[in-house]
């Protein structure tokens, strides 16, 4: 089971996963060495990671960072850990004043409420399976399956997530395996079966094939 997430933590299984994928998949055998020692890193805490994912929905990375900094400043300063109670202390108009839409402001307050009331079982996540965590997270307004899967990969560093709703993954599969032809979910799922139990790692390298800078959520 992956370790809980501290800034800069990388998965213990990574080297074993790379050997497994290189042995079983010709594309991975060529792709993995291109990125040297780069690997998945987990940063931040659970609440901050999910809050950032809500702030960043449907806007550019640059715009998301700008809004995030203003938001973090309003709830205690960018250098402090985000605390659910501090978010709940701000009403929707105050959150909108930092550049959040009314909907995102409501989503952030709902997220904070779930954490503050203990309706998400953070201490138990390491023992829960992926689908149980996804079910818990998608009950929070503003968090869909894709966001929950990104959380599993980037925060909990679960090794075997295949995010079929992810545009980058589908583009990477198309480019590396299908000569740029469109790929169906069924084809992607079948290909992913060959990567188990390290589908998250294969996904990460396919993202790298499109953008050499490591993804970070």
From TrEMBL:
InterPro entries: Alkylbase_DNA_Glycosylase/TA, DNA_glycosylase, HhH-GPD_domain. It comes from the Bacteria. Its EC number is 3.2.2.21. Residues 55-211 form the HhH-GPD domain. Keywords: DNA damage, DNA repair. Pfam families: HhH-GPD (PF00730). It catalyses: Hydrolysis of alkylated DNA, releasing 3-methyladenine, 3-methylguanine, 7-methylguanine and 7-methyladenine. This is DNA-3-methyladenine glycosylase II.
